[in-house]
Amino acid sequence: MDKFTSFLKASWEEMTEHVTWPPFNELQANTTLVLVGSLIFAFVVGVMDFVFENALRLFYQSF
């Protein structure tokens, strides 16, 4: 139990005294960038899925 308590104290010290946290506006901008990038990626994958599904459907119906 002593090791665990020591670990928690060291972790708390690291997080409060040694980590440099970004300003809120920078954090907000990065979050927005990740959200927009994820939506674009999801849209591209959805379009590819739609195109391949219809192409394969046409291909299989031709036989």
From TrEMBL:
Record GO terms (molecular function): protein transmembrane transporter activity
Annotated membrane topology: Single-pass membrane protein
Presence of keyword Transmembrane: yes
Subcellular location: Cell membrane; Membrane
Keyword Acyltransferase included in the entry's annotation: no
GO BP term, example: intracellular protein transmembrane transport
Bilayer-crossing regions: 32-52
Record-linked Pfam families: SecE
Protein keywords: Cell membrane, Membrane, Protein transport, Translocation, Transmembrane, Transmembrane helix, Transport
GO cellular component terms, A-Z: plasma membrane
NCBIfam families linked to this entry: secE_bact
Protein task: Essential subunit of the Sec protein translocation channel SecYEG. Clamps together the 2 halves of SecY. May contact the channel plug during translocation.
Protein family per UniProt: Belongs to the SecE/SEC61-gamma family.
Subunit relationships: Component of the Sec protein translocase complex. Heterotrimer consisting of SecY, SecE and SecG subunits. The heterotrimers can form oligomers, although 1 heterotrimer is thought to be able to translocate proteins. Interacts with the ribosome. Interacts with SecDF, and other proteins may be involved. Interacts with SecA.
Protein name: Protein translocase subunit SecE
Organism: Dyadobacter frigoris
Gene (UniProt): secE
